[in-house]
Write a structure and sequence with these properties.
Blueprint: E1 8-15, H1 20-32, E2 37-41, H2 50-56, H3 60-64, E3 67-69, H4 72-75, E4 81-85, E5 96-97, H5 99-107, E6 113-119, H6 128-131, E7 136-138, H7 151-167, H8 172-179, H9 186-202, H10 211-224, H11 229-250
Parallel strand pairs: 1-2, 1-6, 2-3, 4-6, 4-7, 5-7
Helix pairs in contact: 1-2, 1-7, 5-7, 9-10, 9-11
């Protein structure tokens, strides 16, 4: 089976963009690289103003048809795979992947699906909580003397990497390796984290003031493990049984 034989919907997500010129430039890039959809999370600028349209040129339809969301988890709720970009080095529990590691994983499909590439705010990027929604996080390598990239430049680099990878031929061994893994979606992992945190607080494993950081570590572990949907379902079944056992004991 060809690694890239199944249709894949590619979605670009911008979180709280505050520059109309940048949004217009990204819309143009979506047309350049045959992206399927542009999604915006709480934009802080005019996305249909003259500045954005002048930059978009033949990508204007991406501005006209862009979908807006209040938060990132809703913006990627229908996507089976999500990668995010991170320019910070103080990322704490976030595990960074190289493009060589992340792109074969992202573009492997044994069924039709949607994938999302998420970019953060121009001034401060994505929060750790937002980065943990993505299964993979990529940092674009730049000079240590001046690592900051313009938003549209970051989008251009990553979309070019994706196009180049799709056009290249993968080795037979790599193809077989990636075809065996269909990871849980970000929404499945996010729902599990909420469920687990509630139980862990109830049984005293977590404390209110440390719950967020402890669960972030667990979420990072699940992403690194490429946990599958059926495995998430199994663990949630265990949580349900634990709750039932606790309630039966109380009665």
């Amino acid at each position: 089976m060809n690694l890239l034989s199944q249709p894949t919907k590619i979605v670009v997500v911008l979180v709280e963009p505050n520059g109309s010129l940048n949004v217009g430039s990204v819309a143009r890039l979506c047309a350049n690289f045959e992206v399927d959809e542009l999604r915006l999370v709480s934009p802080r600028c005019q996305i249909n103003g003259l500045e954005a349209k002048k930059m978009a040129l033949k990508g204007k339809n991406f501005l006209d048809n862009s979908i807006q969301f209040d938060n990132l988890i809703d913006a990627v709720s229908d996507c089976s795979k999500v990668i995010a970009t991170c320019g910070r080095i103080d990322h704490g529990e976030i595990c960074l992947s190289s493009a060589d590691e992340a792109l074969p994983w992202l573009l492997n499909n044994n069924k039709a699906s949607s994938i999302a590439i998420v970019f953060g705010r121009e001034d401060r990027g994505l929060t750790n909580e937002e980065l943990l929604i993505a299964q993979k996080v990529i940092s674009i390598r730049t000079s240590s003397n001046y690592p900051s990239l313009n938003l549209s430049h970051s989008v251009a680099i990553l979309l070019h990497e994706i196009k180049s990878f799709k056009e290249s031929k993968l080795s037979k061994n790599n193809s077989k390796a990636f075809l065996t893994n269909t990871p849980a979606t970000p929404i499945e992992i996010n729902d599990f984290i909420k469920d687990a945190q509630s139980l862990f607080l109830e049984i005293g494993f977590l404390l209110d003031h440390t719950a967020k950081s402890r669960m972030a570590k667990i979420k990072g572990l699940l992403h690194r493990a490429d946990i599958r949907s059926e495995e998430i379902s199994l663990i949630r079944g265990i949580l349900r049984q634990v709750r039932w056992a606790l309630s039966s004991k109380d009665n």
